[in-house]
Amino acid sequence: TTPLNVAAKAAGKKYFGSATDNHELTDSTYVEILSDSNMFGQITPGNSLKWDATEPSRGNFTFTQGDQIVNLAKANGQLLRGHNCVWHNQLPSWVTSGNFSADTLSSIITTHCGTVVGRYQGQICFWDVVNEPLNDDGTLRSDVFYDTLGEEYISIALRAAKAADPDAKLYINDYGIEGTGPKSTGMVNLVKSLKAASVPIDGIGMQAHLIVGQVPSTLGDNIKQFTALGVEVAITELDLRMTLPATDADLAQQKEDYQRVISTCNAISGCIGVTIWDYTDKYSWVPATFSGQGAALPWDENFNKKPAYDGIVAGFAS
Ligand code: G3I
């Protein structure tokens, strides 16, 4: 069967990729598959570039974990997606509990994004600069950044990232924006307002943590309303979970759903690539978060390809 990045490139996409995490890299079977650039043309570090990992105390930056994944991807000839500069989650307590003034927090964001993006200037070509800024109703999420700075925190982060790596594609990334609806409308309005203010913004990342049998019917229309804003779209964290144990019928439906997501992206030129949120069920985030659910990825826990794999290939061929 066709390797997935080969299938994506043949379809005119920039890559098919996978997230990974440092503790998985001691698993040699895992690394062998991950390292095949015909299979995965792009890698996203799942945790090691987040704020708690990179700036655990103010002004003290650590890149050991980030470097490990960046160096692996570079050695394998794979593109990188940086994840992420500013997010309400996985923040060190010095950020959340610092009671900083607006001016101070602004400079903290500028230093953080500038340093992390700058560290990998020319090496990480896509960045989730702002992660999960929206509530389900499309308004901006209340967190330390919004509560202190209002909407301005988003442009502060994007401008700092731009200054640190002018050639990187800068994204806002969120979940629950796969179909049309209030949250997607909130994303449209946010990107419009950033563009109107000449804030650098190149892309919208659609996480796509989906449920088998529930791919939104408006996925294609929604991607098109995003690309119509003059930004690119990437599917950044795709997985399709189900209630365990997985039956043959579930796996067949999952294959169809992967195919549908991929073929929908495939048909829209501004949808530039797809990343799955790790590739094997052995290392999926799902079971730890949604009790009784899992089997969300195209490889099972024993590194056997599931029907979903052929769904992805068929999606790129359509
Ligand atoms: O590093 C510690 C380790 O020292 C400790 O022994 C272990 C015990 O639980 O925890 C380890 O940290 C965990 C970390 O992943 C690394 O494995 C955290 O508890 C765990 O909460 C953390 O989960 C990550 C999650 O983000 C946190 O929000 C997942 O791996 C990661 O896949 C997930 O990724 C997010 C994206 O960033 C944003 N979109 C949603 C996506 C899925 O939740």
UniProtKB/TrEMBL annotation:
Keywords: Carbohydrate metabolism, Glycosidase, Hydrolase, Polysaccharide degradation, Secreted, Signal, Xylan degradation. One of its GO terms (molecular function) is endo-1,4-beta-xylanase activity. Transmembrane segments: none annotated. It is found in: Secreted. It catalyses: Endohydrolysis of (1->4)-beta-D-xylosidic linkages in xylans. Its EC number is 3.2.1.8. Residues 1-315 form the GH10 domain. InterPro entries: GH, GH10, GH10_AS, GH10_dom. Pathway: Glycan degradation; xylan degradation. The active site is at E237. One of its GO terms (cellular component) is extracellular region. The keyword Secreted applies. Belongs to the glycosyl hydrolase 10 (cellulase F) family. This is Beta-xylanase.
